[in-house]
């Protein structure tokens, strides 16, 4: 039930909007390149990190050398031409294109360089290459290239399209269900699975998805890929963890959305539509408060799913017909002016905190009954001039004649001067911890999580030794059954010797014994991999440790210990951000287990 409470006074907190430079130093660029590839294969990334370090240690050589990541990338593409499609390419403003592995035109003997040739080969692939995004505010960020996923990849990412992963508005009853999921590289995604009749033409679906997948903006929940296998049609987009505008406007529990945040929402939404229009995607289907999502910093983003043209070409309003543009009622098709009409209904939503039918709202505007149009929770938060201007903009957008409605650029120009509290980040305006509605890092870490985040190997050893094999569900029964054979007895002896060496902190012997146990392959134990992982860390073998942590996760996908050990290995490799994500995932699993879910 919606509860109204007294609005808390705004707290103006100084906030500096940091600008990240697109042009990084060689070492930083190398790290970013590794990070990009780690989304495909963390182990390959770790190997490249090791080779990069070796390269730097040998930098006293007088011969000029290509950067480590460039050399490795050349070998990758030469051995696998299809890898060229994943080659990281920067797309900057004004058409400046630079291949990350160099722009040299020849070697010191005058021969054409491999880099120059590869750049020419990659030019046709630029629309689908990984890109840097630079938005109007000067911020930049990186996303992977649009790609086609297999159905099996997305099935695994969503835990078999589990009911608990459904995030779409009407759950399983929605015509096209949206799931949250996680890809191999730990990137959170939203997966939209269409019903079988939505896209009968697979070629049309792929063309439409690839076109939308070229868009990259901080104002969008960007499309990362798709799947088209048999009758299956799925879209993969960035996951937005902080709910929808509809939830924050209509179904809030503790505090209504503040006026400065509402103004920010409509400006960012207008900027998103302006960006799409500039890229030739002026049509947006069924624009409503459920299409506006909030990212981990609580900044509003426009869902990319509404940019996908339905298989019936424009006939795509699923909301109540009382909210659809008049021309859609006549022709059944939308136009750019129809999108402006829907934007006007969103302005009314933001102003009133209710989903008011446009016809009723226009009656209130004509009668100058503005009090009925404004959310009572906003009392004292905005001036009469601000409220009047928003009402004026909404009424222009809702004009019956499409040609009388403003264009999206004029909406951006009108909304920008209304902004206030510019230096306060969105998550503070919405009183939501940064990183999520219920950020797990805001909770106290368990001893193992704390030890792994600090890479306190001694503390990790003590905890693993104390825990023993309690987390190996079903393993004990399997072991007792298999003890009848001599081969299994030898296997168990290897395990016992490994446990004894692990207890005595003889980690080299522990690695050998646990490896013998694993190589037999008769039994599966996530704890064995966890113990060998720590043993590798004790011997400064971080790449092998990361491999074992990931293998433990394959065996037991919800085991917090596997996530925590993965974090410890990532810290050893200098991948602090990825380690933090692994800690988050482990905390989430630990919280879920303790609550009985």
Helix and strand arrangement:
Elements: H1 26-38, H2 42-57, H3 68-79, E1 89-91, E2 97-99, H4 114-122, E3 131-134, E4 140-143, E5 147-148, H5 151-157, E6 177-182, E7 188-193, H6 202-213, E8 220-221, E9 223-229, E10 232-238, H7 245-250, H8 259-278, E11 292-294, E12 300-303, H9 326-331, H10 336-352, H11 358-366, H12 384-397, H13 408-415, H14 426-429, H15 447-454, H16 457-467, H17 475-482, H18 486-503, H19 507-520, H20 526-538, H21 542-555, H22 560-572, H23 576-594
Parallel strand pairs: 5-9, 8-12
Antiparallel strand pairs: 1-2, 3-4, 6-7, 7-10, 9-10, 11-12
EC number: 2.7.11.1
Domain Protein kinase: 164-419
InterPro entries: BSK, Prot_kinase_dom, Ser-Thr/Tyr_kinase_cat_dom, TPR_BSK1_C
Describe the structure.
One of its GO terms (cellular component) is plasma membrane. It catalyses: L-threonyl-[protein] + ATP = O-phospho-L-threonyl-[protein] + ADP + H(+); L-seryl-[protein] + ATP = O-phospho-L-seryl-[protein] + ADP + H(+). It is a lipid-anchor. Residues 55-64 have a biased composition (Low complexity). There is one protein chain. The protein has 597 residues and is an alpha+beta fold. Helices cover 45% and strands 9% of the residues. It contains 23 helices and twelve strands. It has helices at 26-38, 42-57, 68-79, 114-122, 151-157, 202-213, 245-250, 259-278, 326-331, 336-352, 358-366, 384-397, 408-415, 426-429, 447-454, 457-467, 475-482, 486-503, 507-520, 526-538, 542-555, 560-572, 576-594, and strands at 89-91, 97-99, 131-134, 140-143, 147-148, 177-182, 188-193, 220-221, 223-229, 232-238, 292-294, 300-303. The strands form four sheets. It has a five-stranded mixed beta sheet, with helices on both faces. A three-stranded mixed beta sheet has the order 8-12-11, with helices on one face. A hairpin with a 2-residue loop joins strand 9 and strand 10 (232-238).
